[in-house]
Amino acid sequence: MKKKLVSVLLATAMIATLAAGCGSGSGSGSDGGDSGSDSGSAGEITYWSMWNSTENQAKVIQEAADAYEEETGIHVNIEWKGRDIKTLIGAALDAGEDIDLFDDDYMRMCQNNTKYLLDLTDYAAEDDLESHIMPIILEKAKEWGGGTLYCIPYQPYTTGVWYDKDMWEDAGLTDADKPETFDDLLAVCQTLKDSGVNPMTCNSDTTNLLYGFQFARYIGQDAVLDCYNNSDWANVPEAKQAAEDIQTLFAEGYMSPNAPAQYPDGQNEIGFGESCMVLNASWIPNEINQNTGTEVNFGFFPWPSVEGGVDGPEASMVGAQSIGIVAESDMTQEAYDFAKMIATGDYDLQMAESVSSIPADTANTEWPAAIAEAEPYFKEMTKAYDWAVGLETNADIKDILNDNIIKLCTSEITPDEFISNMAATQ
Amino acid sequence: MKQNKKMIVCFLTPALIFFVLMFLYPIIRTIVMSFFKVEGVSDAVDTWQFVGISNYQKLFATSIFQISMINMGKIWLIGGIAVMAIALLFAVILTSGIRFKSFWRAVIYVPNIINAVAMATMWIQYVFNKRFGLLHSMFAALGLEDLAGIDYMNGSWKFWSLLIAFCFGSVGYFMLIYISGIERIPQDYYEAATIDGANKLKQFIYITLPLIKGVFKTCMTFWTVSVVGFFVWSQMWAAPQASDMQTITPFVYMYNIVFGTTGNVQRDAGMGAAVGILMAVVVMIVFFIVNKCVKDDDLEF
Known about the structure:
The structure holds 2 protein chains of 2 kinds. Chain A is α/β, with parallel strands linked by helices.
């Protein structure tokens, strides 16, 4: 009898422990959330961040949070989730996690997460937020949100050719030589090659930028995407022409012999003084300087236009991160105020300086020196391409395309084979 | 006896409840989800749209999924033969009375206790790097410029560099399983065979191999499960991209379509569920075939 009693007690204890374990699991899972909710009244908002706590962006955001707390008395509970936020946020919000604001790529924010987000139109109108956001980014964010503003974009980026100005000048080139057409680019490459350096370099993960830009210069992004999504490669002569152009860059020796190199070896060649130009996003100067411990004097020009093409320097990739306010939050105004604090004014400028990125707030006109040359082009930009001109938007095709572009670059296949391989893709 | 039954119920019920909640419910939900169009993995059931078997049909017609299955099949078959053969060879050598057995066993097993990300980084940066890697430097020092110029991390070589690195790390684990099987075979058999004049090769073929059939079956099952769940190595080889045609596997493809990738915001949790179900079916088929081919004997260790 005694044994039975002990056994029953043990079993009960086991169930209780398991239940308590689960309870504590969900509790700890919603630690931030609960504290956000409970502390909603106690003055706390919860922010799930796409940054890791060691990144420079995180340090600036933490400073902003401290300043916000000092100013308002509201504590910002930040959970540094890193880039995995894209896999976590939907399930967390569906499960009732109490999150007041979070950030992610602005395209994903506007296309995947709007069902969780607060319509910011009235908030933005009330304090004239829209006048602080770059028009080209605001337009895209609204377009993806079906005409509604669901996020506050920050840390924008653009893409173009970044080059080592000292190397450029050593080869006898000046600002006037910045290529406007693809033929000009080939001529510049020849001059640089003659000076004894590798004119261009690239990482293997960004060869689709090279091909995408060249293809879009001929027919524009919409037509590129039409070809890409409908496997219409065989019927679009510009697809083959762009393939031939890109292969020319490699075949003529205008690309580093190591290109396309494993990330980040290709881009680092610029920091090591081996190569002069790279087509990449505006975070690349900072990455190169950080990786190689140098201070390269960077110049910039947009990817050149092509003969008979429809797009020129007015069209380029534009992207940004963004902060969304959760519609279910009971502290939406406070969350909005904090988000605005990060994306505009002093903290926006601080973030831009800390990672040499473009300031999000149009009122911050000083761009960090490493990317300053891109400013006039960025302001003239009227057409926004997606990342890689949209060539990564289809999970069923992008890997096959990337592989074929790399084989094209390394001359494993001809432009004709490139087209036939892509046309066979379903 | 009655008392025992109550005890069994008392102790099993919580476990059963939690099994149903934590395992059975997600399994059933995933199976059902694979027949619906579902965007986000946690979307409410009332937003699901029934599409019958079209998720499966679309999967089989998608080039990149076919490629991912072929990649997985190549890893399973080619990598499987290599890993099983080398692991068995090492196991036989280490159980043959070699000196410093524990040391060698530890050396061969070490890759298994190192995190896969660290191992992959080591291979990518220190062995396969096109400029500074071991292979490049070694071939360059030997004057073999063509071999030194091979880019193991791009194009057609990429799959093979991944396979070599993955197999290298897998040998130790299976070697230990084989060793445990071989060590259970009584030494008397070998002594008798030696007296009868059988050499080491014959002893291996006629004694060791037949008596470790069960171990082989276990290894095949473990290998299949690990290859079907192939994910981290593939992602490391594709980094900073989410995936790469040469190294993509079904689980990586599933992850891409369920959560989206950089530049791709399209998500399809229903299709991802279908990939998961298909992979489970693959494991069951392999398990069934192995069970059919390798019959259980009364005499095995």
